[in-house]
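Predict structure. Chain length: 553.
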Amino acid sequence: MYRQFSPNPRSLLIGSFALWLLANGQILLAHEGHQAATYEVTPAAAQIEQGKYLRLKVVDAESSRPTAARFTLTVNGKEYIPPNVARHGLRFISIHQRREQQFIATYARGSGDVLVPLPNDARSATVTVAKGFEFVPVTASFDINGPSATVEVQMERWINLQAEGWHAADEHLHYERTDPKHDGDWLTMLDADGLSHAHFLVLRGGNLPGIWAQQFAYGKAGEANDGKRSIRPGEEYRDSSQGHVNLLGVEKVISPISTGGIGEPRVPFNYPPLLDVFRRMHELGGIGGPAHGASLARSSTAALDTVLGQVDFFEIANTHLYKTDAWYQLLNCGFIIPPVAGTDLPNFGFRDPWQPLLGEVRTYVRSGARSGFDAWKQAVRRGEVFVTSGPVIHVDVDGVGPGGVVRLPPQGGDLTITAELASPRPLKTLEVVSMGQPISVEVKRTHTGGVHRLHVKQQMAITKSCWLAARGTGGPKTAVEHGLGIQQDVMAHTGVVQVLVGNQPIRSEVEVERLRKQLALQQEHYRTQANYEEPEHRLRFVDLFEQAIKRLD
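Prediction complete.
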């Protein structure tokens, strides 16, 4: 909801700063900006020359206190991006240099009224305010009849997942953090986009030739934490043949960061195996898994690394991508690993007004009242997760949720499956998935209190060990479609619930045989196609594939 007020120039005291709205409309206040190769925080307005402006009040409806949120504007029917904002706002530019992509996001910091310059010919405008996925986005229209307009927007929660122990993270960001004094801005953006955690990953090549998205320190020394939100540095390690992997929370960077000819200085060889990288990551206190659905590789070693026991999670979604096939195959072979998702910013920063910039697709983990990286890591390893680019999704099997195990006697039995997809925005589908395939369920639709819900509650006879999960979709991502020319709906997917019948393992013999053949073909690829500096490196890869194939027996 919102309220519009008549302009009332006056003097305000904000912290230790006085802010004067002068008779001529000048606004006096300043805030330091900062920038790097992948972003810019625009310096706050020290002086907005005589002209029109908006005073935007964003408050939490429950507490009536200012709250951080992202806002977008249209003026006279057209999109409007202000050149700057005053101190209680934040203007952020996400920059991908190689793709020549920029996206500008404007935020209320949650510390007071945001003063936003408007064009001198502004007559009418709308502002849309959003705060992650747990608050209802608000769009307010207003007229500008004098030198300024004042709009108050009250942000109302439709759900409070943190109260239920769920915490949201973007596990895949690539922005520089070279000075800890700027972490306050990053934590403000997390707050405004409804995130509890973010993982900033250094890498080499791609956007820039050398090492980029560097952090001022790694491990605990590089962590930012304000008691409610935290940032942890990490690394995306990449090989042109083996693929990309996210290494979260490592105490130091694992060199050479990229191999197989990616980045400068160029390391042409497809060595070391990513299996060794994962092992080193675990020694350094990290947690990791394949990135991008294991899709960016000539011959991804995601299956090899999983079968040999070094993968902690599987990234199935980024802003521009949603791939579950490789993950489903491993689950069907009995390798139960949780899904995660993150944006991969500054890649593809296309956002609709209701979408957050950070965490447009995110991972929720159930870590309870505990905060910080260690609690997050443990919850991921337990599999208490779901991923979403909008809707909230839930599944339980006889009261057991994602990461849990339901045990049945050798003859099997009946189970009750409950699943729900919910959002203030329209929804399309909700499915219950067993061993990668949707099962026949009756889906009930409701729309009450401004919230759309799809709900399933159904009994199912289980005679063979399997995994179960829920997945769903909502409306299209229009900005992604316009920016990239690809059609993608918002999505949500739970982690899995294991159902074990007697002593049967979760194992599809058809999928195991398919994986065995896949590993044999990959073994030949790494025997004949990959690039090595030493003959023993080739032999090492061949032996690793031999070990993985035997482990499937």
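Summary: The CA atoms of residues 56 and 166 lie 30 Å apart.
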